[in-house]
Amino acid sequence: MRKRYIAFVFGLVALLMYLALDTISPSKQQTPQASLEPDFIIKGLQAEYFSDEGQLNQQIDAEAARHIPESDHTLFEKPSVIIRKGTEPEWGMRAEQGLLKTDKLLSLSGAVQIVPFSDDKPAYTLSTESLDIDLRKEIAETAELVLIEGPGTNLQAVGMQLLLKEERATFLSEVRGRHDPQASSLDQ
């Protein structure tokens, strides 16, 4: 009887140890780092987005892209974005980093530059440190300092909403600028 009792106790201890080790096994636990692991990495990304009518609408190029399945976000290194109106490129944007959230919201950060592609208007550049773009509505927004530079024009403001389809910008606060109409006509 005593041998059965001892065997039972050893068996119970062995079972408890097995269950305890199984629950703390590193292969079964998901660390916070593992949930941030990408499910794919692309070097030299060239992505094209088409409208419902089948026309090329937007392009995103990047040195590299990583997709994080946990959040369904895509991280870009040195992204370049082209937004088109019909078949013609209308806006170009580039930055040091980008974050695409579920293919609707693109957040650019680090030396963001926005350039309109228009032959009939003077060239200018919008610069800021961060920019959120709703790719479906084609609206870009920032709460950061914005600098606009072009022939004879220098403007700075804090905060901006840019309606890309309408080519209209609204500056939110602390707007300061200088415009020399003579300089823009001399450059042409």
How would you describe this protein?
- The chain is of the alpha+beta class and 188 residues long.
- The protein folds into two domains: 1-30; 31-186, Sandwich (lipopolysaccharide transport protein A fold).
- The protein is 17% helix and 55% strand.
- A hairpin with a 4-residue loop joins strand 2 and strand 3.
Q: In a nutshell, what does this entry contain?
A:
Helix content is 17%, strand content 55%.
Considering the chains and any ligands shown, give keywords for the structure.
188 residues, alpha+beta, lipopolysaccharide transport protein A fold, 2 domains, six-stranded antiparallel beta barrel, 3 helices, 11 strands, 17% helix
Radius of gyration: 27 Å
The geometry reads as elongated
Number of strands: 11
Determine and state the CATH class of the largest domain.
Mainly Beta
What layout of secondary structure does this protein have?
Elements lengths: L1 H22 L8 H4 L4 E11 L5 E13 L4 E5 L2 E6 L2 E7 L2 E5 L3 E12 L8 E10 L4 E12 L2 E11 L4 E12 L1 H6 L2
Antiparallel strand pairs: 1-2, 2-3, 2-4, 3-6, 4-5, 5-7, 6-7, 7-8, 8-9, 9-10, 10-11
